[in-house]
Design a protein that fits this description.
Layout lengths: L2 E4 L2 H5 L1 H5 L6 E4 L1 H7 L9 H16 L3 E5 L6 H6 L4 E3 L3 H16 L1
Parallel strand pairs: 1-2, 2-3, 3-4
Length: about 110
Amino acid sequence: LVICQIESLQAVENIDAICAQDGIDMFFIGPLDLSASAGCMGDYKNPTFVKALERAETTIRDSDKWLGGLVMPGDSTADMFKRGYNLVMPGSDVFLLREAALENLKAAL
């Protein structure tokens, strides 16, 4: 299984050519990095980010590749599966590590 990440506006601009590459099974959209590339880090309602995300989702869904992604605030795994995602991660490694660290800190106080 070969998974490539789509995390920049440059990748979205070239998404048709990228999806045409043989040997890639899935594309995973990284929303935080994509929003940072769009100049609006973490602002998932920013029009530039929304347009890029929608273009990437549509192109990947229309290809023979699988679509993967990370749940963003205001979204749910069910919403993403309805939009055609094949793999949905409910949280990032950084988020999960942060939450675990906060729980450990609370337990120690």
